[in-house]
């Protein structure tokens, strides 16, 4: 079952949301709220928790900056907190992020999946999964054992445990 758009909680900088709508030429209504408890349901309008890091300058595009790095990590931490600690959200969806920026901001993991696992204090198997429907409408799943790392380190990250873990997750999904 698909959640109504009014149940969407956007966590981000209002300026970035507005700029994104300007770039795409697409607009949608949203309500700015102070925290997740203020989100209204069944209004057909998503809510935005305006996360900014106290600067007045817009984030630069296609360049890694201190401001952008801090913003990415802080917004992600806030979203994870709402899902894990407060149980205010059921899932977290995010747009592609600049891995260089995240590494410069202190992320030590090779990608955001590893960073999420560390933030959530999760020690089990995790992997990136993709689902698609083929022409015969059968469901096909793919999974990555490694992701977002230099090719020279991939072989060191492959292990029977990681491969079997990724396959088990596909079976359980």
Choose one word for the global shape: globular
Structural class: alpha/beta
Assembly annotation:
single chain
**Helix and strand sequence:** EHEEHHHEEHH
How many H/I helical runs? 6
Total count of strands: 5
Strand order of the largest sheet: 1-3-2
Radius of gyration (CA) equals 18 Å
Strand content: 5-15%
Unreliably modeled segments: none
Biggest sheet overview: 3 strands, parallel
Quick check: average pLDDT? 79
Residues in helices, as a percent range: 25-40%
| N-C termini distance | 17 Å
Explained architecture:
- The chain has about 170 residues and is α/β, with parallel strands linked by helices.
- It is about 35% helix and about 10% strand.
- The chain contains six helices and five strands.
- It has helices at about 15-25, 65-85, 100-105, 110-120, 150-155, 160-170, and strands at about 10, 30-35, 45-50, 130-135, 140-145.
- The strands form two sheets. The protein has a three-stranded parallel β-sheet with strand order 1-3-2, sandwiched between helices. Strands 4-5 form a two-stranded antiparallel sheet.
- A hairpin with a 5-residue loop joins strand 4 and strand 5.
